[in-house]
Amino acid sequence: MQPKEGLFITFEGGDGAGKSTHLQLVAIALRDRGEEVVCLREPGGTIIGEQLRQVVLDPGNYVMTDECELLIYEAARAQLVSQVIKPALARGATVLCDRFADSTVAYQSFGRGIDRSFVERASAFACQGVLPDRTVLMMTGGDAEVGLDRATQHKHADRLEMAGNEFHERVNAGFMRLAQEDGDRIRLVVSEGSKESTARKVFSELSDLFAWMGDESVCTDAYFEALVEKRDTVRRI
């Protein structure tokens, strides 16, 4: 028998919205239930993709043109889809990705001003027919500066994070436009309050894909507290 096709779930949003944290929480929860989970980030996820990530995010590359930036993201995506995402989905794994094609529309079209139809065609070429089954759009609930402060709290800003508040406000507006246009796939989660309360909202938006995530007898306050503690413990090791 052929294995069941896997699920592809992406986490999107502005910088500092909690995408990585909540992707990790979902991954831990699914693995605890015996699921194969593949966690990825964009750009990255392959040797070639990580090399391209260093180039596109290096603040020293301040002379990089918008066109060059777009094509680097698409090149990294094409490699990731071919090398990792397609094979993982084919064997039935759940793939969780920190950013995907929606980020390219938000950052390179709404943010940089490149023609949206061109960006979408370039992304379609790189995606090779692979589309997310669900996208969790995480926003801070505040302006772009709030997210940037969170994102750079423990590290130096990268080239995109240094693009300025006006750029990131356009990006956030772009994400909201995408959510309005495709509300069935893209589910908005405002990242505010505790990690536990935000995790509960994320799980709710995935409960049609994983029925147990909507079961209040499973997803109790104690469950989320233990999940966050487990994630934080793994990070400390």
* Percent of sequence in beta strands: 5-15%
Low-confidence stretches: none
Query: What is the CATH topology?
Result: Rossmann fold
What is the CATH domain class?
Alpha Beta
Q: Could you give a short account of the major beta sheet?
A: 5 strands, parallel
Mean pLDDT score, rounded?
A: 92
Number of domains: 1
- Given the structure, what is the number of helices? 9
Q: How would you sum up this structure, described in words?
A:
- The chain is α/β, with parallel strands linked by helices.
- It has a single domain (8-230), classed as Rossmann fold (3-Layer(aba) Sandwich), CATH 3.40.50.300.
- Helices cover 53% and strands 11% of the residues.
- It is built from 9 helices and 5 strands; from the N terminus they run E-H-E-H-H-E-H-H-E-H-H-E-H-H.
- The model has no long low-confidence stretch (mean pLDDT 92).
Features:
globular; alpha/beta; 237 residues; Rossmann fold; 5-stranded parallel β-sheet; 53% helix
